[in-house]
Amino acid sequence: IAQDWSDHALWWPEQNIWLLRPRSTLDQCGVQADARLHFTPMHKNLRVQLPDLQVHNLRVDFSIKCFTAVVQLCRELGIRHPEELSLLRKWDKDDLKRVAKEVTKIKRRKDAGDAPGPLSANGTLHSSSGSIDGKLSPYPSRKSHRTLPHTYNTFNGTLSPGSMHSLSFEGSMESSLANSPPVPAKEAFQYLYRPKNFAEKARINCAWLDSSRSLMEQGVQENDFIMLKFKFYNFYDLNPKYDAIRINQIYEQAKWALISEEIDCTEEEMMVFAALQFQVQLQSGLPQSDTIDGSGSNPLPVETDEIGAALQDLQNSLEGSSISAHGDITHIPELADYVKFFKPKKLTLKSYKRYWATFKDTYISFYRSKEEATGPPVMRITVRGCETQPDVNLATKKYGIKLFVPDSEGMSEICLRFDV
C-alpha cells in the first residue's frame, strides 16, 4: 500500500518559515544548496486545555495561521464564533517573574536542545503515544467517558469505534464540554495562574499567540501544551439552543478567573456571579412548561413555528395575559424588624441605638419606631457598592454585621446588631 504524503510539507528551520508555494522553485524561495529542510507533517498532535481546565489531545494544522487553526478547533469542538477565542502559551510560575523576551529565548533553547522527544510546558519529556499527561490538568483520574478516547490512532490515520469521527464519540465529547465535571479549587490552583502583582498580570497577556502567524513559526512543537481561551470579553449572539458548550466554557473561564484573582472584582460582584449561576442551575433542573401561562390552559400547538410563537407572545404582552397563578411579580420583597445601630467615630463610646429598620430593594431605612414607618425615615443607606463583614459569636449569642458604605471620604463603617 502506497503511503500518503499529501499532509507533508517542507519546513525551513533557519528562516522559521513553511515552503508552501507549489509553483515556486526552491531557488525562488531563497533556498541554497547548504540549507537544511525538514519534510514533516503539517497536522500534529497538540495538548489543548479548554477554559474548563479539561485537556484534549487534538490534531492541529501547524502550517496555517493561528486564527485559522482556532477556527478549525472550534468547529471540531462545536463552539460558534471562534473569533472570540485564541491560543495561549502555557508559562510556568517562574516564567511570570521574567521578562517575556527572556522566557521566549529560554523556550527556544529547550526546544532546540531536546532531540529525544517533544518537551511539554512543565519541562518533562513525553513519548509520541498521544496520551494526556495528568500533571497538566486537574483531571488525572477521569473516566473514559469524560476524556478523549485513547483508541484514536493519530499517526496512521485509521479510525477506531471510539474515534473523534464516530457518532458515539461526538455525543460523549459534547456532553463533557457542555457539562464540565466538578473540580475542587485546591486541585485547580495547581494549574491556574495566580498573579501576585500587576506586572505578572501583564506578562500573562504576553503569552497570547500571534493570530497572523502559524504555530510552527511561533515555536510551538508537537505535543506541546497550549490553552484555548476566550480572549475578548465581548460575546455575540449567545443562544442556549445552539451554544450550550460555548456558554458553559465562558462560565467556567469566568469562574476560575475570579477564584484565581486573575480578574479584579469586589466581593459583592463575586457573590452576584455565584447567585446568578445558582439560579441557573436551579431552573435547569425544573421541568419546562409548554403552556403560555402556569394554569395549563391555552397550550401552544406542536406545529406552531417560531414566528407564530413570537407573534403570540407579542399579542399577550399587549393585551395582557392571566398570570394570577404566579402572583404579583412586580411586588418588591421587604424585610423589617428592630435593629441596633451604631456608627463608630473617634473618641466615642460604643453605644447602640434601637431603630425599626426596613430593607427594600437596595435601601435600608431606619425609623424611631414601627408606627413611624409610614413617614420619612430618620436615615437611609444605599447598599449598592457596600461591603459586609459578619460579626457573629454563637457562644455569646452575638449576631451582627459590619457594613462598609462608600462615601466621599472612602468607606464608612456601620455596625448592625440583631436580637436573633
From TrEMBL:
Region (Disordered): 107-152
InterPro entries tied to this protein: Band_41_domain, FERM_2, FERM_central, Kindlin/fermitin, Kindlin_2_N, PH-like_dom_sf
UniProt signal peptide: none
Biased composition (Polar residues): 121-131
SMART domains (alphabetical): B41
Domain Band 4.1, residue spans: 40-367
Gene3D superfamilies: Phosphatidylinositol 3-kinase Catalytic Subunit, Chain A, domain 1, Pleckstrin-homology domain (PH domain)/Phosphotyrosine-binding domain (PTB)
Listed CDD domains: FERM_B-lobe, FERM_F0_kindlins, FERM_F1_kindlins
Stated name of the protein: Band 4.1 domain-containing protein
Organism: Batillaria attramentaria
